[in-house]
Write a structure and sequence with these properties.
Bound molecules: protoporphyrin IX containing FE
Distance between the termini: 56 Å
Mean pLDDT: 97
CATH superfamily: Transmembrane di-heme cytochromes, Chain C
Strand order of the largest sheet: 1-2
Number of helices: 8
Number of strands: 2
CATH topology: Fumarate Reductase Cytochrome B subunit
Structural class: mainly alpha
CATH architecture: Up-down Bundle
Helix content: 55-70%
Low-confidence stretches: none
Strand content: under 5%
């Protein structure tokens, strides 16, 4: 086995920052009250991270791209057969099933962070853009925010369970790869050709994403 570089630094930073911020957002959201000022801050930071990740999915390194990890049903079924037969599957980036989970997580997170901007708990906290829409739209977006929070928690739970399954049943440590960026790769299997995008491009994209989110809130927020 030799080590293969699979994840770029931007994807790894995105992931671990996202984990910390989602845990913060869920706990502060459920706590309510004074915790809500931190809820808004962490939610807005998630929004900037997501905007960056959507862009990086089209401009970033090979394994960060949606075109790399969103595969048709044939590849998903082939991968499932390999797993059911308990055979090793060496995939450099997200596996064909995990790739779709990443998309669903991204969609649920984006829905959660954007509806939050328009949500209102009718006691303490009003999302910064809620004044732009009617009362009935605010109610609708608030109920989507409340319901989707549980969809997101469920998806994240399945995601962590899948990572544990790989670790305990298939003896593949995907967490270590998400930390170091490297995966063990069998010498007898040819290494995939992976292209790594420049770090400055990620920094620029993140600066633009953060700028767009903060400028929108400064211009349109209450
Ligand atoms: C708050 C809950 C979490 C969310 C919302 C979340 C979300 C995500 C997302 C969006 C990705 C795709 C990364 C990318 O391509 O940019 C991902 C990948 C990954 N996550 Fe998480 N994650 C969460 C918690 C965790 C935890 C607690 C662990 C560790 C136990 C973990 C381990 C991983 C690993 C290993 C991958 C890469 C999977 C692969 O090799 O295909 N995640 N996660
Ligand atoms: C991914 C990011 C986010 C997550 C995971 C999240 C999660 C939650 C949760 C779990 C609740 C409590 C729901 C309940 O009481 O049933 C909540 C409520 C709320 N969130 Fe978020 N939220 C996020 C982003 C945001 C953002 C960006 C804002 C605004 C800047 C926001 C504003 C609110 C407001 C105003 C409420 C109170 C609404 C209510 O009582 O139903 N959230 N959120």
């Amino acid at each position: 086995m030799s080590d293969l570089r699979v994840w770029d630094l931007p994807v790894r930073l995105f992931h671990w920052a996202l984990v910390i911020l989602v845990v913060t957002s869920v706990t502060t959201g459920l706590t309510g009250g004074n915790a809500m000022s931190w809820h808004e801050r962490s939610g807005v930071a998630i929004l900037a991270l997501l905007l960056f990740r959507w862009g990086w999915g089209f401009t970033g390194s090979t394994t960060a791209r949606f075109s790399d990890f969103l595969n048709g049903p044939r590849k998903v079924i082939d991968f499932l057969v390999v797993v059911l037969r308990n055979r090793p599957a060496h995939v450099a980036g997200h596996n064909p099933l995990g790739g779709w989970m990443v998309l669903f997580l991204m969609l649920s997170l984006t829905l959660q962070a954007t509806t939050g901007l328009f949500a209102d708990d009718e006691i303490f906290t009003t999302g910064p853009l809620a004044h732009l829409v009617s009362g009935s739209t605010t109610s609708l977006l608030t109920s989507i925010h409340d319901t989707n929070a549980w969809v997101l928690i469920t998806l994240a739970g399945i995601h962590v369970a899948a990572v544990l399954f790989h670790l305990l049943v298939r003896h593949e440590n995907l967490v270590r790869a998400m930390v170091s960026g490297r995966k063990p790769w069998p010498d007898e299997q040819s290494q995939p050709l992976l292209r790594f995008a420049a770090g400055w491009l990620a920094a620029l994209l993140f600066a633009i994403s953060l700028g767009v989110v903060l400028a929108t809130l400064a211009l349109l927020g209450r």
